Amino acid sequence: ASIAGAIVANTLFMLGASFLLGGLRHHVQEYNRAGARFQAALLFLATIALLVPSAIAESNRAPAPVMQTLSLGLAVLLLVGYGLGMFFSLGSHRELFAAAEQGESGEAPWPLGLALGTLAGVTVLVALVSEVFVASVQEAASAFGMTPAVVGFVVVALVGGAAEMASAFSGARKNRL
After folding, report:
1. Are 3 and 154 in contact (CB under 8 A)?
2. Number of H helices and number of E strands within the chain?
3. From the CB of residue 23, how many other CB atoms can be counted at a distance below 10 Å?
4. Fewer Cβ atoms within 10 Å of its own Cβ: the N or the C terminal residue of the chain?
């Protein structure tokens, strides 16, 4: 339910609100078509990797060890595909994915050490806050009588994607689709 909720929240709510916010400020918005095609292809591969084990499990044709091996193999293939995709977009074909404007004017990049330290610190804080969030959601869900499907599809999707949404909305207002 949380995966489906995240997909719906991202494709419907976040995308629609980003188009709205960006369209209010900028009459015509443009995006990198090569980047969009590339991301769509990677998303298609991930969708197939989710559907294949689900379809096989639903048909009850494969025993559990085969399903585990299949899932592990698909996970490894997805990680390799993601790594190759990162190399393709950031290394070998960087010019296809470069934005028209690189950063705000007058904004200096952070030193690498500071950026990595901040990333590590924020990662630890997010892990701690996530533990508190999960415990709070479980208690609230039982107190309000919500089913796990509702919690995963609505609450976790919206709250879990809040930082993504803030980033997408900020980018849309700056005409960075």
Report:
1. no
2. 9, 0
3. 13
4. N
In sequence order, which residues have a C-beta less than 8 Å from that of residue 90 and are 6 or more positions away? 97
Residue with tokens 């500071």: 114
pLDDT in tens, 88-115: 887 887 777 666 554 455 678 889 999 9
Q: Which two tokens stand for residue 172?
A: 């849309």
Residue 96 and residue 18: Cα distance in Å, rounded? Answer: 23
Over residues 2-60, the pLDDT tens digits come to: 777 777 888 788 888 888 888 888 888 777 777 778 888 888 888 888 888 888 877 77
Render pLDDT for 129-157 as a digit per residue (tens, 0 to 9): 878 887 788 788 888 888 877 887 777 77
State the CB neighbour count (10 A cutoff) for residue 144. Answer: 9
For residue 35 the two structure tokens come to 């980047």
